[in-house]
Design goal:
The complex is a heterodimer of chains A (132) and B (388). By secondary structure, chain A is mainly β. Chain A has one helix at residues 18-25; strands at residues 30-34, 40-41, 56-60, 64-73, 80-87, 92-97, 110-116, 126-131. Chain A has a single domain (18-131), classed as OB fold (Dihydrolipoamide Acetyltransferase, E2P) (Beta Barrel), CATH 2.40.50.840. In chain A, the strands form 2 sheets. A 5-stranded antiparallel sheet of chain A has the order 6-5-4-7-8, with no helix packed on it. A 3-stranded antiparallel sheet of chain A has the order 2-1-3. Chain A is globular. The two termini of chain A are 15 Å apart. By secondary structure, chain B is α/β, with parallel strands linked by helices. In chain B, the strands form 2 sheets. Chain B has a 9-stranded mixed sheet with strand order 3-2-4-7-1-8-11-10-9, with helices on both faces. The longest helix of chain B is centred in the first third of the chain and has 16 residues, at 25-40. Chain B is globular, with a radius of gyration of 19 Å. Chain B starts with 7 loop residues before the first strand and ends with a strand. The mean pLDDT of chain B is 97. The chains are: A mainly beta (132), B alpha/beta (388). Chain A binds chain B through residues 6, 8-14, 17, 39-43, 45, 48-50, 68-76, 80, 82-84, 86, 90-96, 107-108, 118, 126, and chain B through 120, 127-128, 130-141, 143-145, 147-152, 155, 196-202, 245-250, 252, 375-376.
Chain lengths: 132, 388
């Protein structure tokens, strides 16, 4: 297992994204999709990055995915792993892989979503992943 | 319209300092400017265009332009990270071609070594940047963003740590001849792969130095270049682009060089195999491998094999690169390596590199850089220069 865990700074929520973070507090992981072109994207935006449509909406995702790439910060005071995870049927998102033996992490590995608390009272948890 | 032949690099200067505890950032900019103007044989009163990026203290170009008391007809503070200054040469040539200015000064300076800023620390790039809330909490720093590119390159193409290490080995062979280089010891592949892992799979010796310093360039109209005593180094072609996460269609296997490179080669009317010397931004060893592939010096995925066995060492390999020792060994002022890439390319084209690393008849040279993070969003700029 990992040693001491890194304190995660709270995300700077804004009006465009507060629905996502409020849902995260309830344990729900939302993806933003376009009502015009039908594609989902990451990170969530009000305006679709695929077609610039302003008609986008939130949809819940189950949080399964596959590691696209991963790097372990081996010499940080608290070792941690940054990664890109490709969501099942969805976009690829930057994240952390947590609660695991970092030395075993591999590209192509299946992972599942876990919300991790961030710093500060009332701050929303952050979507991260752990081996499935 | 083209910038081909419309402008010349007349002055180039790399500040000799690598640790500037007793200087300000503004002072380093101005000292670099003075050095480049001296090199060109021009004075500050000849300058009518000024270019800088986010390392310049003050509001855009205003702070430094006023510090140096410049009288300007054209200003540009395009910031695409460490490759900004390569773009600035292109923008300066455009402005000169359009008649907006005749003598363009470009400066860079910074003190990350004195101030303790390295690529291992997550950096906030503006609280309201749209990506900040999604990425800053993850501890994304410079080194682990590039490391994810390296990990994927290894997964897709079988690239090895030993192949990446050859990039550093080649840089160290060059740096031994540079009295200003931060790291002058020649290193071996074994030393690189046995140095501590910083962000897997990148080791300490896969990473560039953190240095204080600065640099400046002077780009001039052909009529002015002809009156100066320096070799005529013509701007032959340039390209710039960027690449991001494509809305979640992330692909870490290539860089913005796939667009900036072909634009530059097309404008210059040359091909990669014509290039005698290349300055390739070496923030990390993997940066060089990806950019060389994307610029067309080798096939996609074959970069590891291309850089191995000394192929980047001047006098040994087919493509001599970063003969000043590059960012990996010589200098990475302001944590931005673009201007030093152009400076060494100019030295090579003039025949003024160190004799031990000078490429014979280096009349066609290239400088390419990546700014920002190769692993998330980055700028790319390519410049091709020819000695007349």
């Amino acid at each position: 297992m990992a040693g001491k865990e890194r304190a995660i700074p709270a995300p700077g929520v804004n009006p465009e994204t507060e629905v996502f973070w409020n849902a995260a507090k309830e344990g729900k992981f939302l993806l933003r999709s376009c009502d015009d072109c039908g594609k989902s994207h990451w990170y969530p935006r009000a305006v679709c990055p695929h077609c610039l449509s302003e008609k986008t909406s939130w949809h819940e995702h189950k949080g399964g995915g596959t590691i696209y790439s991963v790097s372990v910060m081996a010499r940080a005071p608290e070792v941690y792993a940054v990664a890109y995870v490709t969501l099942d049927g969805g976009p690829t998102m930057m994240t952390n892989i947590v609660d695991c033996d970092f030395s075993t992490l591999k590209i192509g590995q299946k992972v599942k979503l876990v919300f991790k608390p961030t710093q500060g009272e009332g701050a929303p948890p952050f979507p991260m992943f752990t081996p499935a | 319209m083209t910038i081909k032949g419309k402008a010349y690099i007349a002055g180039a200067f790399e500040h000799p300092t690598r640790l500037a505890k007793d200087k300000s950032v503004a002072q380093l900019h101005a000292e670099s400017a003075a050095g480049a103007l001296r090199d060109a044989g021009l004075t500050k009163d000849d300058v009518d265009g000024y270019f800088c990026a986010g390392d310049a203290p003050g509001l855009g170009p205003l702070g430094m332009a006023d510090y140096m008391n410049l009288k300007l007809k054209h200003l540009d503070s395009t910031d695409v990270g460490g490759c900004s200054y390569i773009s600035h040469v292109s923008h300066a040539a455009q402005a000169i071609a359009m008649g907006k200015c005749k003598v363009a000064l470009i400066t860079l300076a910074g003190r990350p070594r004195s101030e303790g800023h390295s690529g291992a620390t997550p950096r906030m790039r503006g609280a309201d940047a749209p990506d900040t809330q999604w990425e800053f909490p993850l501890g994304i720093a410079t080194v682990n963003a590039y490391a994810m590119v390296a990990a994927r390159h290894m997964y897709e193409f079988g690239t090895t740590s030993e192949q990446l290490a050859w990039v550093k080995v080649a840089a160290s062979h060059h740096a031994q001849h540079n009295p200003h280089a931060m790291l002058r010891d020649v290193v071996t592949v074994e030393q690189v792969v046995n140095s501590p892992l910083i962000a897997t799979p990148l080791h300490r010796l896969d990473c560039c130095v953190v240095s204080d310093g600065g640099g400046a360039l002077v780009v001039v109209h052909p009529d002015i270049a002809k009156t100066l005593k320096r070799p005529m180094i013509k701007v032959l072609g340039a390209g710039e682009s960027m690449k991001g996460q494509m809305g979640g269609a992330v692909d870490l296997t290539y860089s913005a060089a796939v667009r900036s490179g072909p634009m530059a080669f097309s404008e210059a009317g040359v091909k990669p195999s014509d290039i005698k010397y290349a300055s390739i931004y070496d923030s990390f060893t993997i940066t060089v491998v990806v950019q060389l592939e994307d610029l067309g010096f080798c096939e996609k995925g074959k970069g590891g094999a291309f850089v191995a066995d000394g192929n980047l060492i001047s006098g040994v390999g087919k493509l001599p690169f970063n003969t000043d020792g590059g960012g990996l060994c010589n200098n990475h002022p302001a944590n931005r390596g673009g201007i030093t890439k152009v400076i060494e390319a100019v030295r090579q084209a003039r025949g003024e590199a160190h004799p031990a690393v000078q490429v014979k008849n280096a009349d066609l040279v290239l400088a390419h850089g990546t700014g920002g993070l190769l692993g998330s969003r980055h700028g790319g700029a390519t410049l091709i220069l020819e000695r007349e």
